[in-house]
Amino acid sequence: MQTKMTLHGAGVYYFAVTGAKDQPIFNSVFEYEYGLRILSRVTGTRLLAYVLDERQMQFVLRCQRDWTEVMDDIQAAFDSMHERCWHKRRQVLSDQGVVLLVDERVALTELILQLHHSPVHKGKVADASLWPWSSDRYYREPTPPAWLDTESMLNLLVNGRRNRAQHYIDVMKAPFSPKLDLSHGSHPLYQALARDQWVDQHLKREALTQSAYSRSDVQRLFDDACQLVARQFNLTTAELCDKHNRRRFHHLMPLVIWLLRERGVHLDAMTKLVDEDEVRLQLWLRNLPADHTRNIRDKLARQWSPSAPGLTAMAAAGTVAEEPEAEPESGSEFESADNSAAEPAAADNSAGPDNLNAVETEAASVTPQ
């Protein structure tokens, strides 16, 4: 069977993720709570539904940015969570998983119902309401927590705003059999639970987004980003862009690509600028949190304002360069947001992210800046 193509851009996505190297994702009850907190607080997203078990996470997110960036943030946050809990570094989530773009009107209701029924079909519990790590429990409540978007699905399930939780309970009591293919989707060409016409419209919207910058705009942004990164590391732009020094080029150029992605430039528009293919650029972005500390990324993000008269003027004014960042140690997978590690604490019985007391305030920020 021919592999289907993956869609990109903003939208509602279904994710199915397993542990790296066939290892469990969650090793204790409090890790489930930390994991749920991560999923509910990813920058630029809204959590619509989830079902977690020891070795797999299934969840639905409304994303304002491309799912690859969202997934990178989630992976980095889980790595940091593991380090804080166990004082050890390892990759928690597998790089392989399922990502399906969802046509809300035709698939969202069925998707979430099937998701909530999955612990029953896997033989884990006799009734969906008994599985503790599922958003099913909140769909049954008249007033669900603010961090979970139940409105999107219930608005499609129920005509009217009265007794919606009871209507959902009645639907869940009815006999149910899975109808959606959550591995490959329903579209013949793309990984999506969607109609042909809807996918065509999504592709057109994404094409318009990608073409928002002209070629000269992209070149200007690239030049400004190169200048900013070069100044940060006491280099000239020529030294930064010198591909003959491959170690330095592959260490620092991902920062330039990251800055351009922060301005909505599509990877395809950057390939000719750095003479690398899109797969390589995606790999750079995926490894960025492991190669550069959050501190260095925060500094660059604060200074990154290409729409201003320019970094060129800043350089001409003789702005003092920052101290260069030290090279990451060999084998380092992810640089923690700070140098402290939180001791595991006894878990509260509630799965709600608002009841997590063991994570420091700064650890609640999921997305590396």
Question: What would you say this structure looks like, in words?
Answer:
The protein is an alpha+beta fold. The protein has 14 helices and five strands. The radius of gyration is 22 Å and the shape is globular.
**What is the tally of helical segments?**
14
> Distance N terminus to C terminus?
40 Å
The largest sheet, given as strand count, sense and whether it forms a barrel, is:
5 strands, mixed
The spatial strand order of the largest sheet comes to 2-3-1-4-5
Task: Show unreliable segments.
Answer: 308-351, 355-369
Structural class: alpha+beta
Please estimate the helix content. 40-55%
Tertiary shape:
globular
Helices and strands, with pairings:
Layout: E1 11-19, H1 29-40, E2 45-52, E3 56-63, H2 67-86, E4 93-102, H3 104-121, H4 136-139, H5 151-157, H6 164-173, E5 192-193, H7 196-210, H8 215-232, H9 237-240, H10 246-262, H11 267-274, H12 278-291, H13 294-303, H14 311-316
Parallel strand pairs: 4-5
Antiparallel strand pairs: 1-3, 1-4, 2-3
Distinctive features:
single chain, 369 residues, alpha+beta, 5-stranded mixed β-sheet, 14 helices, 5 strands, globular
Short description:
The chain has helices spanning 29-40, 67-86, 104-121, 136-139, 151-157, 164-173, 196-210, 215-232, 237-240, 246-262, 267-274, 278-291, 294-303, 311-316; strands at 11-19, 45-52, 56-63, 93-102, 192-193. By secondary structure, the chain is α+β, with helices and mostly antiparallel strands.
